[in-house]
Amino acid sequence: MRTVSEQGRQNPLSAEPGFAFCPACGGPLPSPRPVTCDRCGQTHYRNAKPCAGALVMHGDRLLLVRRAKAPFAGWWDIPGGFCNPTELPRDGAAREVFEETGLQIAITGLLGMWIDRYHEGGTTQDTLNIYFTATVSGGLQTTVDPVEVTEVGWFQRDALPTDVAFPDHASAVLDAWRAGFGD
Question: Residue ranges per domain, the chain?
């Protein structure tokens, strides 16, 4: 699998978003994570938060959704989101597609994993983005969640929009999908 840095782009994880004080006791932390608090002994790690998405095909068209909220409000996006605690990524991908579009899907394969950062409300989270390939397993009638999505679109492989959210990793995901990985 390819990573952002292998594709010649600047690694988005090169700067530490960190915190200066221990969330457990409030004591000052001597360095960026991973770090152990001198006051209480709690060790703090910098772990990526798991996210899951699905590249859903119907015939020769790919499903994308237009985001309703920041970050990247108004941009097209691959359906997906953060995994719930104890949720398997493939289940999270199917849940997110259903929540955002009302579509039932069948996962057909693992496309790959990409690291990125998610910026929202002044905070930054490292993310591990896990993408699956999928097909529609039920009807094609969509019902969007207006809090999350304003529009659903089906796009030909060679006619994808250019304004796709999370460009630090989404372009690599779409390139891998176009190349046929995960089929």
Answer: 18-46, 49-179
